[in-house]
Give the backbone structure.
Amino acid sequence: MAFSIGANYGVLKSLNNLRTTESKMNQAMLRISSGLRINSAADDAGGLALGMKLSNQATITSNLQLSVANAESFVDTQSTALQTASDVVSEMQTLKVNFDSSTDIAVKALYESEFDDLKTQLGTIAVEKFNGEALFSAATKQASTTADGNGVVNFGGIDLNVSTGNFYALTQVEDLADISIGNGNNTIMDDAFDEITGHIGQAAGDSSALGFASSYLETKATNLEAARSRIMDADIVEETTNLSKYTIQYEATVAALTQANSTQQTVMELLLFPNKS
C-alpha cells in the first residue's frame, strides 16, 4: 500500500460511506417518528402524488358517507311520521263508522271531539321538519348531495341521489283538513290512507337503497385507505430493523475512518524518523 501526503483514499472513501450511512440512518429515524414512508417529494415524487390523490378521494368518500347517514336519518324519521299518520287516519275511519252508527247525541259528540283532535294531530305530522327541512310537501321533489362533485353516487351502473331523500306529497291528507266527522266522505279518508301507505312503501325502498349505498361507501373507504397506506405509510418493523443496521454500520464506518486517518500519522512518523536518529 502506498503512503502519500496529497491524498488519503481510505479517509475519502470512509467519509463518503459515513455520509451515505448517516443519510439512511436519518431517513429511517424520520420514517419511524412520522410513521410515513414518503415525507417529501424527494422520497418518491410519483408515490406522493398518488397518495395525495387517494387521500382526496378518501375525504370525498367520507363526506358522502356522512351525507348518506343524514339521508338515512331523514328517511327513518319520515317513515315513523308516515306510520303514525296511517294509525291516525285508521282511527279516524273507525270513529267515522262509530259516529254514523250511533244514535246517542252525547256519544256522537265524544266521537266528534276525538275526531277533531286526531285531525289536528294529522295536520301537525304533515308539517313536521327534520333539522329544519320539511318531511313532506305539496309536490314531490328530490334533493341530493354528491360524492363526485355533482351530487350523485354511482355504483353498479346506478345513479343514486342522496341527501335527504324524497319529499312526499300529502295532498290527500291535506283534504282531510276540510272535513268534519258529520259531513266527511269515507272516500276522502280511504284515499288519504292509501296515499300514506304508498309513501310508507316508497320510504322503505329509499331506506333499502341508502343501506346499499352506505355499505358500498364503507367498502370503498376501506379500500382507499388501504391503498393510501400501502403507498404512504412506513413499515415500522422494517424501519426499526434498518435503523439498527445503519446505526451499527455508522459506528463501524467511524472506526474505519479513525483507522484510515492513522496512515497520515504513520507518514508523519516516517518524516520525523531521521530527526530521531
Q: What stands out?
A: Residues 73 and 164 are 8 Å apart (CA to CA). The beta strands are 129-130, 133-134, 136-137, 142-145, 152-155, 158-166, 168-169.
